[in-house]
Amino acid sequence: MRILIWGAIIIFAALILLIIYCRTENRKFRVTRYSYKTDRVKEKLTLCVLADLHCYVYGENNQRLFDAIREINPDLVISAGDMTDGSRYAKGNCETIEFLSRLAKAFPFVYGSGNHEYKLMYGRNHKYERVRNDFRKGLENAEKSGQPLEILDNRDLDLPDKNIKIYGLNLGREYFFRTGPIPLPKEKMDSLVGEADPERLNILIGHNPEYFDAYAEWGADLVLSGHVHGGMVRTPWNRGIISPRMQLFPKYDRGVFKKGKTTMILSGGIGNHTIHVRINNRAELLVVEVIPDGHIGAS
To answer: Which of 7, 53, 178, 201 has its CA at a distance of 20 to 30 angstroms from the CA of residue 37?
Structure first.
């Protein structure tokens, strides 16, 4: 009996410690820096990449996150999708819109969408109507701010002076079902975002990394992705355990992946959605330095 009591006490204490650990980790983020070297550009470009904020807030008015981006002083801020929550109430949505507007006033900002933006913008369920209207109005106001907010909803942004094209791929909900990925042929990609430009550095914002093979076949040079949240819990040997569609040990969780000439930099996410658990998997703000000529590394 005494052994059972002590066992219960130990389990209870472990659960309490786990909850405290998760709450502490969920209030922190790290800055992860990558270099991407290419012969397609002639001068360095600093990108700051946000993925999967999900209305998360770091300090009042997201000041801690804003200060971190301001310290980096990027040439361009890029959303890799899921800044908001595709839910009926989307707690924190107003704060997120305000944060996005502040970023757009401070830096050139390119907004790529994820499955949550798709649900808000194109979902037919009337229960999202209020949040949808708030979100649209917020993006419209941000577009009118001091710096342009470029919303890449299946279109591209041409930066001829940089020899770069940025494409924002916005896939339908069927490409995020838990039954697994469906075919995404090059013809479908071409119909959504157009053909890759063989003379430019083609940067593709592709929220779902499971389609990395399709992105590479389409012609992306650099893919910026998110969605998987790093696998939520990471093993000591640095593998993510579970994906948003409940797949164990997903092939793409966070970090750098290569296929042929295509490199994907996959964010572990800056926020959380539904289950707010991160173990050995701190949220991250990405910095990608695009540098003339060479190879890729991480620090």
So the answer is: 53
